[in-house]
Amino acid sequence: MIEKIYEIIKVIPIDKKTLIDLIPILKELDELEFYHPAHSYGVLDHSIKAAETLDDDFLRLVMIFHDIGKLTTVTEVPDLTKVNGFITKFPEHQQESMRIASELLGKEFEPQTLRVFLKLIEYHDTPLITGEDDRVMQELIQKYGNNFVESLLKVQRADMTTHDKTYYENKIKPILDNIFDVYEKKYKQNKLENDSMDER
Q1: Can you give the pTM of this predicted structure?
Q2: What are phi and psi of 34, to 5 degrees?
Q3: Does residue 179 contact residue 172 with C-beta atoms inside 8 Å?
Q4: Confidence grade of residue 145 (pLDDT, cut at 50, 70, 90)
Q5: Would you tell me how many other CB atoms lie within 10 Å of the CB of residue 182?
Q6: What are the structural domains of the chain?
């Protein structure tokens, strides 16, 4: 199945109907109703649009599945400041996305590739920097390496840039820009130096 998925997602725009025909659970995701001011697309449309911003087929695949766990974690939370009186949240949807993606594709990957695939899903919503504290980014680099974190940054950017445009510009973009800036200045140089030493 994985080869058929790759055939679909490498063509932009991605054919949603063909994707749903191949992975029927995506129809449920496409029909999931929710309200949250950060989102202007449905869950599947958001996932597809996020995938389309990337030029790497593997990362596109991550984006198709990164929010699939929202199917089983949808929760309405009262919020009197909103017109609708509630917002929809998806607590722990990352873990559910990992579980469902593993059930669907676990046998399609080599173990190491599956691990990276699932870890990118697991951390796609994880703040890598809080204020000036970049311990999470540092820990992920130490545990999984710079290449993983660079992929994760691409995943997070794809995810965030396909949120509601106003919400993104006002609330998300400054945070995301800072995360990329810290990585470029503090960690990417170390990676380049290490790569250079490895080549000697």
Answers
A1: 0.88
A2: -160, 165
A3: no
A4: very high
A5: 17
A6: 2-198 (1.10.3210)
